[in-house]
Amino acid sequence: MSKNGAKDKDIYDGELWISRTLRVGVAISAVITGFGLLLFVLTGNSGYPLESFPTSLSEIFKGFFAFKSYAIILSGLFVLILTPVLRVGVSIITFLREKDYLYVIITTTVFVILIISFFLGK
């Protein structure tokens, strides 16, 4: 196989990993959210008093492990939000394997900005 053929295969493999990451992330999110919704429909209870709901990650995770339906639904949404961030992380690895260092720098910058935005957001 020629050098270009090998590089084309690497690019194709990288694109496969990226698409799998997105599909798996969305599927996991759907399963978690669906389970929370099913739990809510079956019990008729969100797991929290009237207009109360978890507002921090620690509260969501505590509610998740306590099988509170609203916290489980929020956990699924959190996984959905993290999926594109994980995709950016997988892209960094893909670009490193392809030795495309300009895109490694650009993608790493985007990844750092995303992570900072999570810590600064409320």
Question: What does this molecule look like?
Answer:
This protein has 122 residues and is an all-alpha fold. The protein has one domain. Helix content is 81%, strand content 0%. Helix 1 packs antiparallel against helix 3, helix 2 (57-65) crosses helix 3 and helix 3 packs antiparallel against helix 4. The radius of gyration is 19 Å and the shape is elongated.
How many domains, in number, for the residues? 1
Poorly predicted sequence stretches spanning 5 or more consecutive residues: none
- Approximately what portion of the residues adopt beta-strand conformation? under 5%
**What is the percent of helical residues?**
over 70%
Structural classification: mainly alpha
Average of per-residue pLDDT values: 86
The DSSP helix count reads 4
Give the terminus-to-terminus CA distance.
52 Å
Essential attributes:
81% helix, 0% strand, 122 residues, mainly alpha
Helix and strand layout, with pairings?
Blueprint: H1 3-43, H2 57-65, H3 69-97, H4 101-120
Helix pairs in contact: 1-3, 2-3, 3-4
Summarize the structure.
The protein has 122 residues and is mainly α.
